[in-house]
Amino acid sequence: MNLANRLKTFLDSRGVQYEIVGHPHTTSANRSAEAAHVPGDALAKGVVVEDAGQYLLVVLPATHRLKLGRLHHALGAHVGLATEPEVAELFADCEAGAVPALGPAYGLETVLDDSMAVQDEVFIEGGDHESLVRLRGETFRSLLGNVRQGDFSVHI
């Protein structure tokens, strides 16, 4: 249950109060929510997309699936999913598939799905497959800064 170094540094440097929630090893955000006994709608997952070498982190609930067509429309650009090697390079201190949903900690512009903008409490991956970070929803959104927001996911 160790937080990724960049994530921990980012949170600590901003004096943010957070709690680490441990859970058994999982292979997906939805399973992490189940294992940690937290609402899947409150677990923010990060999906990395790319457009001409520029990367964005799209944040949506673990219970949702990204709809690229909606994202294209919202951004006015045709983005595609980043490859696993690209994500591994961007999140070098994280295990594969355990991307923390705080793009600013990794120097990435972040786009927030509308469904994450209403959560009172938000959980994010801690950078491994055994820990989540619990944040107040207001704190989470303030850490993202001035982000673009829209409806580009569907509940699964």
Automatic annotation (TrEMBL):
This is YbaK/prolyl-tRNA synthetase associated protein. InterPro entries: YbaK/aa-tRNA-synt-asso_dom_sf (IPR036754), YbaK/aa-tRNA-synth-assoc-dom (IPR007214). It holds the Pfam family tRNA_edit. SUPFAM superfamilies: YbaK/ProRS associated domain. One of its GO terms (molecular function) is aminoacyl-tRNA ligase activity. Residues 23-141 form the YbaK/aminoacyl-tRNA synthetase-associated domain. It comes from the Bacteria.
